[in-house]
Specification:
- The chain is mainly α.
- The chain has a domain of about 80 residues: Winged helix-like DNA-binding domain superfamily/Winged helix DNA-binding domain (Arc Repressor Mutant, subunit A, Orthogonal Bundle).
- The chain has 6 helices and 3 strands, in the order ααβααββαα.
- β2 and β3 form a beta hairpin.
- α1 packs across α5 and α3 packs across α4.
Amino acid sequence: MATARLSELEDEAWRGFLYAHDRIWREIEAGLAPLGVSMAEYSVLALLGEAGRDGMRMTELAKRRLMSTGGFTRLADRLERQGLIERRRSADDGRGFEVVLTADGRALLRKAWRQQHSDLRRLFFDRLEEDDLRNLAAVWVRLAPEDGDGTS
């Protein structure tokens, strides 16, 4: 039985994506390491930073991070032990939990944002022209899940 193969262009595009993703991810992660935060932890802190002072429900954070509820709970436990987040019973229904950044979490997030911004400039944005960015943005839109919420 014949195996489907990628064309040379498809292979070059796919391998290039994987290599660039891996290299950029590792360098950004290395930039965050001195702050004592992993990429997974940073992504949760960043989502909470974007959510503002009201925070976000645990279930929504897990969904946006594409994590299982159990996996996300363990991650939230670590962040809470470090004093970076606080979980509160939902004021809306009292059943779920909302997560908010603590003052220490906001301070760490500001440092992490500065570090990540610097790394993204150096590793990605400074290497691309505006047309490249426009084209990439269009590609990501076409590759987005059809339900539009970041999940399949």
